[in-house]
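Morning. Coffee machine broken again, so started the prediction first thing and wrote up yesterday's gels while waiting. Chain of 309 residues, entered below exactly as on the submission form.
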Amino acid sequence: MNYRSAALYKLSTSATSCLWPVDEGTQLLVSDYSGQHSQATHEVYSFLITTVATLQAWLPLRDQFRALWLPDGRRLSFKQLREPVRRRAFPHFLELAGRLRANLISIMIDNRIGSFVQGGPLALAEALDDCFTPDMSEGSIEKVYRLALFVALLQAGLRKEDQPSLWISDHDETLDSFERRERFGRLATYLTFGLTGWTHATEQNFTTTEAESLPRWAEDVAAIPDIAAGACAQLSSALPLFMGVQTWTIPMTNGLSLDWRARIFGDWLSAPHGVLRHVLLRLAPNANGEIQASAQRFLRRPLIFDQSV
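Came back before lunch.
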């Protein structure tokens, strides 16, 4: 695996090689999360962003994959990949995902950072009591705020004001009732309008992976950020951080002891074939204890290297 990093805000002159434009037609945003347990050292939020028109061109490939590898309709997720049928299908699913012209953006947060909110989550819930239910714990408030902030940042950077969009989220406790979803939508709206200055934004439709009305393709599309979040969480201790220079390229050594699912994921991202683009944003304390951000992406190997193996 080769890995490349550069702060996203420094890449404006080469943005076409970093992220695909997704601001024409209906935008599709699909998200999943990892590291929401007491033993985790990092949280990871992964978002797949494409357009409905692009997705429609990809669906026949998805049907072919299903017929060959998962004809019984079973679902894919990072946690389920140890099951033999899913394990055999995994690299072929990644090949399928790689043929989707989309952006996969993962945000990894070191747990040493603590709360994003000055004064803590309870202070935020008190200030914005129309966005949080009274029974929510500090951890749930923090997660809701982070998720709403990341959705707002992606919307501000990748969506037009008059562009319709559909967001499909993993179903968890932060969005497990109508009231919580309504309050979350209000918070995301506040943040989006605050970041963009929009005044008449087109409505964003929202659903979760548990909705009965979801089309059949939604589970496979949602599996992409699910796998990304799980793999990045596993890779957190192996990936480089704060190299001391603005941009850099280094090889990932084969001697690292990695979860096999994460290694296959990393090898796939650095393979010479595929159009899906992945960027990893990391937030962590540096050597001086100061919170610092970096942006990283896997670099695809030249095709000649792949042929020589």
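DSSP finds eight helices and nine strands in the chain. Going to sketch it on the whiteboard this afternoon.
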